[in-house]
Structure formats: structure tokens, C-alpha cells
Amino acid sequence: MNNRIQEIMDLEHFKTLTPIQEQVLNRKNKNRDIIGVSSTGSGKSHAFFMPIFEMLDFDQDCVQAVISAPTRELAYQLYDRCRKIAKHFNVRVKLVTGGMEKVTQMEKQPQIVIGTPGRMKDMFIKDNVLRLDTAKIVVIDEADMTLEFGFLEDIDEILSKMDKKVQMMVFSATIPESLQPFLKKYLYDPEFIEIKKEEAFQSDVKHILVPCKHKSYEQKILDVLPCIQPYVCLIFANTTLEAQNIANTMRENGYDLVELHSGLESRARMQAIKMIQSQKKSYIVASDIASRGIDLEGITHVISCGFPKDLKFYIHRAGRTGRATRDGQCIALYKESDAKSIQSLIKQGIEFEHQDVKNKQFVDLKPYVNKRPMKKDEFHEEVEKIVHKKKKVKPNYTDGQEADGETTVIHPNEQSPLNEEDEDRTIINSEEIISQPSKKKRKGMLISVLIAIFASAGSVVAFLVLGNKTSTKPDVTELISPVEEEKDSIGIFQDTTVSEVKEASMLSEKDKKTEAAMARQPEKVTPVVVDEPRKQPDTKQVPAEGNKITIQPVQPTAEEIEAKYVALIASGKEKMGKADFTNAKKDFTKAKETKLTEEVVRLLISCDEKEAAKLLADRKAQYEMKKTFGNFTIVRKKSTMLYGAIDSDANERIPCKYRNVGIAENGRAFERKDGLFDIYNADGVLVNEGSTYY
């Protein structure tokens, strides 16, 4: 064994090599390209660290090895592991990721570069700061993630500027079909090394389904945690907001934890990784994107709050536990909406134990696969058997028909003789309404009853109103003996109704009864409201031809017009001084209608300009101005503290919904709340949506 390899093993306290390390180091042709397939936690990082340090020329001050990682967190993890070995051999290693300060020049080139593809490409091709073209080895770690996040284009650009003889090492948990064109393009006769799951120290993982029922994820977690005694428990949430809520709830209940999700700033995420690696915290609340690819040691329990849309992420979650011969538990909190996901995972071969929590202990439930919703007709059959018995109904209510327990007899328009006490009788069997087995039926019957009641009441009211309604046609007596109008004391004429004659000859016997009944009621007296005489405008009488008189309004004098104009101008200027441009404009408009002058036109224009400037200033005051970006300005909205971009009129050309902003090759990378990035060019056009840019 090479002396450097042995030194690294001693430094890292390795007693033996893992399968992936052993196969990589014991190759016959060590200059041959490699495709290594192994799960996270199988020792992949040292599988390429050791051959890199084995071939390094310590005396050359140039980049000799480039290691690419798809996320900042994974890049930092690799850097942290490599730094210990590099310090031992006095080798310069540099971390290059998004979110770091821009480097314009370097005194010395590092010998090993670890970073994310986007930032390495910028520093190599765009800024010409890093000389990656001198590298002898290029490692692409987590190649499936690099493909998934859209970074292969960046890798492609980097490799196109490098020596074709550079040795390629590609490591991944899986090799998807869509990765094959890239491998064929840049790898020459690669050696394929695959470590199967059982060889990678994977132990069996126990999967437990726990129903949330009416509780939220954070509430249900508080029930579950007392039932487990984890060395390290990793809690997954599907969104950043859920992760934050879960973390806050756990802290409020005394749990010491660390968060790792895209809602954290870059520095906070790095600190979280350090804390995780030091194993100072027993509970980790994380999102899939932030934690994917990171080797978290000592995880005994994984709690999944719901199921991700892409179920392969659930497989990744479960794969974090049960390593290195340890037993592991993967507890999945589910809701009814997760039924399809659960059934799909069951078909993939995952065996779930269906349990719930009672008295701080797991208790068995019926197997989930046997859990079937009761059929609709079965439900009604059970209701009919248990709830209801046949009831007798009075014969006159059923019209001779037999009624059972589901019969309600309603006669809203029963043809019975009318009398003074009961007209339009509605007969309701209230006892039968109560006995309805179905809420829906009960509700329908109740509505029918109410409709019947209101219909009956309405018919009675209509009948009474029609019987008491005053006829609009002139009475016979009115036509024969009209009454003259009388004049009151203040000169206001009142109309007096004089029709007192009964229409006896025109009424039927039924109508006579109704009228007699109404006559017994006290008559309502409507008070007469006399309007005060309106004040007439100032007028003057102008003599006209003959005896006619023409009424004309009094015209203001020139002095009065001038005084009104001056007063409106002064009032408008005062309001302008107070920045009350809306009311100032009203005064100037009235002044223009009084007298059109050059002054009032100028004041109106000035008022419009100042009002527009004030509105623009008010809109800009909502934002913190950051940097110029093309014809726009990158801003942070004060109310939400989220980033976007505005134009010269303070209109949001890039919506303020992003957590951070970074530099992209063709524009700016705006970090979304889910940790992904939207790339905009200088014209404010979205050119790449949902990429993982670093």
C-alpha cells in the first residue's frame, strides 16, 4: 500500500477500507477513468481523496485536482474533510461556491479546488481567476444530482476548456439513462465500479406509518418523540415553512435541535452543517434539497412529515438511517391525502407497520393495506339495521298509505274546509322528521317544511293585503262629487281623500267576511309631513315686452370674479406647500373655470408633476435599493424583506419574492424560498427557472 494512503488512513483512524475505497485504490490501471456507484455513507469521498493525494505533485503551484459538488452544503462538507488531509501534507485547497465574496485575483493558485459548477465556471472562464485547465483529475460527485439540478452544462463548459487527457472520476448513487450522453462524451473506456446496497453496510430499516388524523405535523411530532430514544433523529419536512414551524414548536417544548433548510442564510447553513458533523445535537429538522448528498453520521431515526411529490426522495430519507450495522427506524406521519403515495411505496416493496401513539407508546393498528373505506350502500344498510324501526302514522296523515321509519308526511296544500281559525293548514309529522337516518335527508325535509310554511304564510298575507288594498281607480262617488282642494295657512296645498263609499255591490260573500275582519283592526294613521319652503336663489326682475317678467340669476361682478380667483390660487398654493396635491389640483381647476390665465395653467402642470414625483418617491420608499441591473435596480422590499427588481417608475419588473440574489453568467440568480434559483437577464426576462445555481 502506498505510504500516502497509509498516512491518510492513520490520520482518519481507518482500520480497514470500505468496499468502494478498496476497489478504487486496487485498480490495475490507476490512470483509467472511473464510474463509481455507491450510496451516501459508503465512503465515496475518501475513495477519490486518497487517489488524488496519491498523484499530487506537492512542488507544483497550480491546480491539479478539481472536485465538483452540486450544492453548497455538499461542497463545504467535502472541503471540511479534505482540509484535514491537506493540512497534513501542506497542500493548498480552496472552496469555491455561490454566496462567497467575489475574488478578483489570487497570489497563488490552489492545488485542489472544491466547489459548485456555476461558481467555478465563472471564476475560470468569465473572471479568469482560477486556472482549472492545469488539472490532471476532475471528480464529479453526486452526478445524478448534478444532472437533476441542471449543472451538467456548466461542467460541459469547464471540461471544454481543459486538456482532453484529464482523468475523469464520476461518483453517484445512481446512473440515470439521461446521464449516459455526458459519460460517453467525456469518459474514455471507464471502469465501472458498483457497490450493492448490502455491501455498503446497510442494515434493515423499520418503516412505521403513523396517522396524523386531526393534528398538524408539529403537533403529532410532539406525540411521537417521547416514544423514541434516538442517537440522532433526522426530521424531514416537504417545505421550508413546515420545517420552520416544526423547529419552532420543538424548541418551545424544550427540544435542542438544529435546522438545515433553504430558509437559512448561507452562513447559517454552514454553521448548521458544522454543528451536525460535530454531533452536538440529537435532533435535526431539514428539507430534502438542503440535506441531499450530505453524509450525516449516527442517524438512528428518520421522521418524514408527509410524503414528497417525488417518492424517490422518501427513499433517500429512509436511506439516512440503518447504516454501519445499526438498526434504523423511518417513521412516516401521514394524512388521508397521502394514500396514493403510500400505496405506491407498498408496491415498490416497502413494508409499513401501521401504528399510533397512546400513553407515550406505539400501539398497533390494523394493517394499512386492509384499511378500506366502507361502501356507501353498506353504510346505509347498517344505518337501517341499527338506528330505525318502523313507526305507525295516523291514517289521515298518510292518505291511506303505510309509512315506515323513513316516512315524513307533509301536506302543504291539503284541501280542507277553511274557517276563521285555520286556513291553508300544513300538516307535519315532526316525530318522523327526527327519525331520519341521513343528515342530508333530514336537511332536505326541513327545507321542504320551511318552504311549505313560508308558502302558506305568504298566501295568507297576500290574501289579506289584496282584501285591504286601496284601489287606484277613481271611486264612483269621486267622479260624481269631486272635492275641491283646500289651501293651508302657509300656502301649501294638501290632497284630501274623500272616497268613503263602500264597494258592497262589487264584493263577494267571502270578501265581505275578510273586509269585516280587517275593519275590526285599528286603523293606522300616516302622519303628514309638510316640507318647508325652499330658499330661492337671488334673482332680479327684468322688464320685458308687455306685461311679461323674465327671471335671470344675478351675475357676479368683475371684482367678485377676481377675488374668487385670487382666493382659489392662494388656497391651492398653500395645499401644494403641504404636499396635498389632490386638493390643490381641485382649487386650481375651480380657478381655471373662474378665469383662464397662463398662471393657473402653469400651476396645474406643476401640480401634476409634483404629484407624480411624490407618488414615485412613495413607491420607491417601499424598497431598499441594492444594485443596478441593466435598466433596473435590484431591491429588497421592506415589508417582506424579499428581493426583486424595479424599473425607473418603481414598477416591479422582477417580483419581490426571492430570499437572495447572486451573480449568474447571463444575469442574476434569484434564490427562491424552496432553495432553487430563477435566472433573469439584464432585460428582466426569466431565462432559467428552478435551477440549483451556486
What does this 3D model show about the protein?
Helix 11 (266-277) links the parallel strand 10 (257-260) and strand 11 (283-287). The radius of gyration is 44 Å and the shape is globular. The protein has 694 residues and is α/β, with parallel strands linked by helices. The protein starts with a helix and ends with a strand. The protein has an eight-stranded mixed β-sheet with strand order 10-11-9-12-13-8-14-15, sandwiched between helices. Strands 3-4-2-5-6-1-7 form a seven-stranded parallel β-sheet, with helices on both faces. The protein has four domains: 3-199, Rossmann fold; 203-370, P-loop containing nucleotide triphosphate hydrolases (Rossmann fold), CATH 3.40.50.300; 376-447, no CATH class; 623-691, Beta Barrel (Thrombin, subunit H). The protein is 37% helix and 20% strand.
Features:
alpha/beta, seven-stranded parallel β-sheet, 23 helices, 694 residues, Rossmann fold
Give the fraction of residues assigned to helices.
25-40%
Proportion in β-strands: 15-25%
- With helices defined by DSSP (H or I, 4 residues minimum), what is the helix count? 23
Describe the strand arrangement of the main beta sheet, using strand numbers. 10-11-9-12-13-8-14-15
Number of DSSP strand runs: 29
Quaternary organization? single chain
Low-pLDDT segments: 198-203, 387-440, 468-540
Q: Mean pLDDT across all residues, rounded? A: 75
Q: Name the CATH superfamily classification of the largest domain.
A: P-loop containing nucleotide triphosphate hydrolases
- N-to-C CA distance: 38 Å
Shape: globular
Structural class label:
alpha/beta
Radius of gyration: 44 Å
Give the second-level CATH assignment, the architecture of the largest domain. Answer: 3-Layer(aba) Sandwich
| Largest sheet: number of strands, sense, barrel closure | 8 strands, mixed
Overall tally of structural domains: 4
CATH level-1 class of the largest domain: Alpha Beta
CATH third-level topology of the largest domain:
Rossmann fold
